[in-house]
């Protein structure tokens, strides 16, 4: 595995690889790798000649109450996991490499952000599209891989690529789950033993809601009510939201057809869990 740490080296490597006709798959991360990241690599490996993973903790994604300095980092751990999973190139730039001077142009996301978690993270997705625009230009991937665990981020990235005609395929990778269905997340370690038993109810409730929606396409309101009630009755968590939107546009569905995202957020004592399911109603 090759490790590159500055933009010039990365661009030179990409230029040489492109001249040889190499197809490049890209997995952007903020490090502190876990199985969700590795699933992206597993998907990218057979579909590309080279898999490039970036590790960059992007300061523009952090709001006033989110501590950039405290974000977990473990470069040695990340290096080992990336290498063992088959990453070909690990790109680890510093903040000064990605933002060498104050930005003269600021990107603002207008759609797909004022719902779900985005409602409480003002400016977060502006930072996401800014850094991805830079990384896409540096790495010039043929395909970029994103997990559906954060479906809102996938929707925003698809909008970015579509709006600005990036010649990149955005590949949606299914959420990695534990055996009982709980979405894998670094936050799961903060669940108590009892909460750990309760938490799989979230996914099972989502699955039931998806089945209900498929069988009764005209009554999404009652489906969401049943979903909320199931989580509230069977867990000690506080339901923050239970919503359904068209995907990837993230608008309220006027007609129950096409892809519909059903998403939830549940606050336990020390962990806030999000999960979702996408129903394709044709």
UniProtKB/TrEMBL annotation:
Pathway(s) per entry: Cofactor biosynthesis; (R)-pantothenate biosynthesis; (R)-pantothenate from (R)-pantoate and beta-alanine: step 1/1
> Where, by residue number, does beta-alanine bind?
61
GO MF, one term, reads: pantoate-beta-alanine ligase activity
Question: Which reaction does this enzyme catalyse, per its entry?
Answer: (R)-pantoate + beta-alanine + ATP = (R)-pantothenate + AMP + diphosphate + H(+)
Q: Which residues bind (R)-pantoate?
A: 61, 153
Q: Which Pfam families match?
A: Pantoate_ligase
The active-site annotation reads 37 (proton donor)
Q: Which UniProt keywords apply?
A: ATP-binding, Cytoplasm, Ligase, Nucleotide-binding, Pantothenate biosynthesis
Residues annotated to bind ATP: 30-37, 147-150, 176, 184-187
Question: Is Calcium tagged as a keyword?
Answer: no
Top enzyme class, one word, equals ligase
Which compartments is it annotated to reside in? Cytoplasm
| NCBIfam families with a match to the protein in the record | cyt_tran_rel, panC
What does the subunit comment say?
Homodimer.
Q: Which family does it belong to?
A: Belongs to the pantothenate synthetase family.
Q: What does this protein do?
A: Catalyzes the condensation of pantoate with beta-alanine in an ATP-dependent reaction via a pantoyl-adenylate intermediate.
**This protein's name:** Pantothenate synthetase
- Per the UniProt record, the source organism is Rossellomorea pakistanensis
The upper taxonomy is: Bacteria, Bacillati, Bacillota, Bacilli, Bacillales
